Amino acid sequence: MMETILNLGLNDETVVGLIHRTDNPRFGYDSYRRFIQMYSHVVLGIDAEVFEGQLAALKSERGVKDDLDLAAADLERLVEEYREIVRRERGAHFPQDVEEQLWGAVGAVLQSWNTARAVEYRRIHQIASRGGTACTVQAMVFGNLGRRSATGVAFTRDPATGTKRFFGEYLMNAQGEDVVAGIRTPLPLADGAPGSTQPKETLAAALPECYHELEKLQQKLEHHYRDMQDLEFTIQEGELWLLQTRSGKRTAQAAVRIAVDMVSEGLIGKEEALLRIEPAQLDQMLHPTLDPTVRTAPIAVGLPASPGGAVGRIVFSADAAVAWYQNGERTVLVRPETSPDDIHGMHVAEGFLTARGGLTSHAAVVARGMGKPCVVGCETLHIDPETKEMRVGGQIYAEGNWLTIDGSTGAVIAGQMPLVTPQLVGEFETFMSWADALRSLKVRANADTPKDAEVAKAFGAEGIGLARTEHMFFDPGRLPVVRECLLAEDRETRKRALTRLLPMQKADFKGLFKVMAGAPVTIRLLDMPLHEFLPTRVDEIAETARAMGWTADRVRERAEMLREVNPMLGHRGCRLGITHPEIYGMQVQAIIEAVCDLARETGMESRPEIEAPLIAHANELRHLRAIIERVAEEAISRAGQRVPYTIGTMIELPRAAITADQIARHADFFSFGTNDLTQTTFGISRDDAGTFLKAYGEKHLFPHDPFQCIDTDGVGVLMRWAVERARAAKPGMEIGICGEHGGEPNSIALCHRLGLDYVSCSPYRVPIARLAAAQAVLTTGERK
Amino acid sequence: MMETILNLGLNDETVVGLIHRTDNPRFGYDSYRRFIQMYSHVVLGIDAEVFEGQLAALKSERGVKDDLDLAAADLERLVEEYREIVRRERGAHFPQDVEEQLWGAVGAVLQSWNTARAVEYRRIHQIASRGGTACTVQAMVFGNLGRRSATGVAFTRDPATGTKRFFGEYLMNAQGEDVVAGIRTPLPLADGAPGSTQPKETLAAALPECYHELEKLQQKLEHHYRDMQDLEFTIQEGELWLLQTRSGKRTAQAAVRIAVDMVSEGLIGKEEALLRIEPAQLDQMLHPTLDPTVRTAPIAVGLPASPGGAVGRIVFSADAAVAWYQNGERTVLVRPETSPDDIHGMHVAEGFLTARGGLTSHAAVVARGMGKPCVVGCETLHIDPETKEMRVGGQIYAEGNWLTIDGSTGAVIAGQMPLVTPQLVGEFETFMSWADALRSLKVRANADTPKDAEVAKAFGAEGIGLARTEHMFFDPGRLPVVRECLLAEDRETRKRALTRLLPMQKADFKGLFKVMAGAPVTIRLLDMPLHEFLPTRVDEIAETARAMGWTADRVRERAEMLREVNPMLGHRGCRLGITHPEIYGMQVQAIIEAVCDLARETGMESRPEIEAPLIAHANELRHLRAIIERVAEEAISRAGQRVPYTIGTMIELPRAAITADQIARHADFFSFGTNDLTQTTFGISRDDAGTFLKAYGEKHLFPHDPFQCIDTDGVGVLMRWAVERARAAKPGMEIGICGEHGGEPNSIALCHRLGLDYVSCSPYRVPIARLAAAQAVLTTGERK
Question: A738 catalytic, yes or no?
């Protein structure tokens, strides 16, 4: 992962030998000084800046710009000054025993496995931390032996765009680290680099034989490895040496283009092409991102919850977001954490930043659903919505200040940073068509609104796997009616309120069905802790009281009665449907009538799948199924039309998974709700996990974050059990997944192995899921 | 379940026939009027009082006291008046078609299955509601044919004490319903009834032949059924008819005595005797109860959460309970719901009454642990701790008013009701020794204090299966130090606070070990949502701020940061131990040092089992085990003594059960925490379940309350899986259960079938568990 190339085995004695052998004291002292600097930095941990400062001072004293203009004596003096730095910083002489140097260097390489950067890298890429790195010791060649020596890096194709052209940079009379370090500006290998306006001293011009040899070699290597290569080379006195070749890193756009090109070049097959792209990488292609060429200094780094870059003015409340939005301003919503009360602000903000919560917190889930950038769990921020201030690093940021967040890295940057929008190139469609032809898992999307459904369909969703009706309830125009309905102490008042909600819900569903044009739409009946709907602020209470003709005290008292200690495990989901059957009745009526209206108006036949959430016991579904069927059949017979609806349930509680055979008797389909299933299987609330999951990560207690990637040994076992039992009770039963995991490649592979029919994920993850589903066929070898 | 004996088939015509046949017009009209009254009450739903009023008016008009003194003409007039009542109340003539009467009566019997009383009875006794009742139609005999006719009920032994004596009551010239209704006072069958001072007209004296026949018959019946019989008989003109015999209801005390007596009489064997007692019934014998001879009118009825009667003055806060207690007054703590903050008041109150919460709410669990009566979820009560008022049925009850609660029935009664304390008779010990000889499950107790441990030991506990250390943390003297420890922002401050807690914890553990005298003591390391310890009230915040040298704002802000949305699934259990290892370290040190001190002082060798709570993943236990072993070994080597400690974990999350084999590698023992396991398997918070579990009960959605009786199909499957996998990984591993279910007979039977080593329950349930464990051997036929 971390590469360290060290000139090893230089001490006073070998340097004298080197000078003697090469007859070049300048080279000898320069090599030695470089070696001391690098060894001191990598092995002894002394800041490279100290040495660079000394070098700069000497160059300024001599009035020269290039290291090459320093004389041998200057460099000899520099060696002494460097040794003095080591003595001062480490209280010991620079080691003269080359064996000691070797082991010191080997140790430094091995220890690099545990640097903060490496740990973070592994965490993000879900690489296990047991393992470790290896260290290869080999003889050196030198690119700094004068004007016929050079060093450089090259890519066999353009890693930014994927264009097929040999591409690279080099430095004359330099070592590899000079190119990597970015201290001197490297030159192009050959003419024709895009954007180059001035002719440069290319390698092709300076050392044409070496260049042509390199050009031939790169073709050979790409052909051999059948992938775009990233090469490192050194030319020592006119002789070309290849130090390393490996598959090159590339942008998602380049990756897709290279894969598709290589298939048409006959280098690789379509299946291999599909395996070449990390599905998560596709995300890059769908969101505007920070311009990677602009260097940034984050004021804080949180968890990268939803990719892409967002730029806007800081607002501390949903209402403020709406107010600025109405004045034509872009905003970033900055909150300690978000809640469903913030939805109206989240709709208009460019992105969200929270101090608390993990990658599956409310803000993160909503952001991914909306395809908006989001950074969560940024704990160093002190966010105070009261005083409308965000404090970090001694600075105070107020409402209206510009802020940029990078949801791909978690970076929070003060001010306005430039964004770039990647283009979905033509190869993208070709590539995805290969994935679609191969995969057996269908891909649906989680979408609550016609707008979401349109995005999902554009990304290739084959249906809606989860339409959350509670989000429809939070619409500011409806909330007062919803509150009236839930606070009502008698069924009649409640029914009156529901009568007013019915046409609104019907319009919601009609919109979804229309966009999906006959593709299946799974509609989850209301699932939300009762109390989340309740008024809490004084103005909300007053408004509700006015609407209901109650006193504010009565509203407050009733709302207090409904307060819950653990709302996640409280009066929600089907429990609400069982205690308030008229709510589910209204929703079912709205679904059926929407289907009938649409059929009458357009001739379109819709396929609603009515889903009861949070079933723990077969009896709950049996009971609700009877209610749903009664209401549906009444609506159908009123309309006199045929409606091919089905009734099913989420499997999102351990007990539902364990008793899946019993529940299957009353269900036409199952959909795994792996967010809640993970929460209950682990006994961890994702909203509260931030405080300890961080410590768990540091101690490597969970191999993966189970809210990102399905926990195979626990949750996965329950899922396997449920699928086996359900299909034993009801062969061929339709089973899908609609948790956040439905868009995560490893989890999709698990779903494929379990034999699910579809995965459903947020619209912006649909392409990822399509590719991951195809890869699952290739990696498991199980084709349906 | 409900018995209805009807004189069927009387109409004008048959009455005339009856008079003709018996030559007794008085009997004819009296039978007819009784028939009209009973039929009207049972089938037509007309209040019996209306008829009784008419009868009383007539007797007063005639100046007679006994029905028998009314003449035939009076009764004929009464028949007419009764018919008029029927016409007025139901707008129809009293039916003259005997077939119509018959079907009306049969329908009434069948409908009795669904009366509120029957539904409630089934709920309490966990009888499924599918099923129904049967109705037998048979010919009548008449106990009201004059002075040589009679009717009565009898028990073959005393149902109150179990004493072996024939015992019963009868009425001359009467029908069965007269005895049951309690309108006329029945007479004893024979002399010698205890407490009878005046000679009465006994059946033995009045109809000696019948009495002796009855006496012989009862012996024969008891011998035949080998159980105490409850008989109903009628004498028609000197001829004895037995209407019914069945096993008689009896008090727990009588049940034990009868069982033990019957074994010594050779009627039944010991094993049959053990099956004769419902284990839950033993609870009666351990608590003072309301005097059953005193009639009560409850002002409200809640859920019976912890048995026994409590009488005291109403207090609305824990502090008020303490204040009244210090003035020598008994109190009943009345709260919307209780929390750990109320513990000091719960210690001094006689019993607890809450408006919210179910049978496993905080109040209920604490009450059963303390052996105090408790009624919970009494939702008709409006309890306002602010105004110190309890409102129900238009009445207001204030602090200091007397209140009685019956934790065996859920009744709440205004005023002071008399209590009786059952005696643990000698037969009890004999009986329990048979149970102990038979059972293979060990029985331990959940006890946190030496006092609890003593009670448990007296009831036969063979160890402590769960000592909850967080209860020790809530002691008012320690809470400020605990708060300091948890609020601390650095490890040093925290360690200083822990240093002060160490000697307190050590004393706690030493006390437990001393009482248990070498029996195993499972100590669960701290498990409590972090935030439950935090100060919330202004005075608590001020006090904490003073103690820590912080500003109140800083304390409030820090406490707010630690607030959780779903504390049950939050930063608690081993998660607290992992993020704050010094807390568990202090506890382990205290355990080991307590063992060593006690060994030095008394030579006693204690057996601590150190238990980590809320493990979800094997890595958590691996990590904690290393910490525990390090601290323990350090303490052991400091003391230079041998300490035979073991390290294990609760299995209380679905994931722990599923991956029990992986966890077993790091555990010496397992203990099922079925409270949390049920909560997470169902996704139901017991604190919030009250609002919907009631509706579930009415709709029969769950066969049992899963928090009372282990859910075999869900939680039970996880337990079986865990036992099989754990023992496969580590043969013979010790596995127990310490949830509330550990004291529930059906759950104990399941634990026996699963092959657990022990159950652990609250001290007052230990005898129940001992008996249930023995019964499990008999009913499953599986002996270890």
Answer: yes
